[in-house]
Amino acid sequence: MVRRRVRLTLEFDGSEFAGWQWQPTGERTVQGAVQDAFARLPGTHGAVVAAGRTDAGVHALAMVAHVDTTTAIPDAKLRLAVNAHLPRDVVVLALETVAGDFEAQYDCRYRRYLYRMRPMRDDPRGLALERRRVLPVLRRVDVAAMQAATRHLLGTHDFSSFATQETRTPVRTLHLCDLRVEGAELRLHVAGDGFLRNMVRTIVGTLLWVGKGKLTADEVGAVLAARDRARAGPNVGPQGLYFLEAGYGPWDPAASEALAARRAPGAPLAVGAPGDEPRPEAPSSPPEPRTMRP
Questions:
Q1: Domain shared by 114 and 218, yes or no
Q2: What is the pTM of this model?
């Protein structure tokens, strides 16, 4: 049987997953769910490798992954077949056969994330319904100060102050770090050549400190320079974090913005776009709710 490599674009709700990576202890993971779906199809299939490894409770709007398979099912039908065996909190948006040397993780040149916050002190609508999708902000914050603080994080820096138990090099380059008011939400858009463990969630926690007056915007530069995790804000919850884009070419702000406009929550659905047709019925019941991991 001929082996081929296929590229997947995945959307998933991370609320009931213990992160992306398969766990030998049997915890429910996104990688495990996708591999289980492939295992129910004809042929042999390798491990599903993603552009990034998300933590428990983190979502993806367009996670790129690859898998080697010997199935002869054509791409369009293969996407439908995989979806038919996936739980309802994961879906393959797009699937295509690619060159055998394509690497979803190692070929990725930048990654983009979105973090959603919603001020709810004066208007708590959605606090219950969106509890797994957005971080509630229950105090008034100085949005302008938070926006001013983001400029200190752009460029190439040692981000040790914003990493948790990290063993890799802490030097990263942020191409984008922009806090925007979008509808009723505050949304942090951040893109870089790589991210340390809990880096985005710590950036958000630090910006909220600025918004609440615990730090000034300019003091964020000193926090960064200190290379001391104790100087930065807390890791906020994972529920507001979304993997938005994996980039395989040079950073292109205009192209990335166009993708974000189509993929971000609340964006209009384009008729005929990959993954917008009705999903096949799942073969099993949705997972039982469980306590979300911190």
A1: yes
A2: 0.89
pLDDT 10s digits, 225-252:
999 999 999 999 999 999 999 999 999 9
Catalytic residue among 13, 36, 55, 101: 55
Q: Which amino acid appears at position 75 of this protein?
A: D
Question: Using CA atoms, how far apart are residues 86 and 121, in angstroms rounded to an integer?
Answer: 38
Do 143 and 51 share a structural domain?
no
How much of the chain, in percent, has pLDDT values that exceed 90?
Answer: 84
- Active-site residue flag, 55: yes
CA–CA gap between residue 42 and residue 200 (Å, rounded): 40
Query: Do 146 and 74 share a structural domain?
Result: no
The total of structural domains in the chain comes to 2
> Does any domain span residue 242?
yes
Question: Is residue 284 exposed (0-12), middle (13-18) or buried (19+ Cβ within 10 Å)?
Answer: exposed
Range of the domain at 141: 110-247
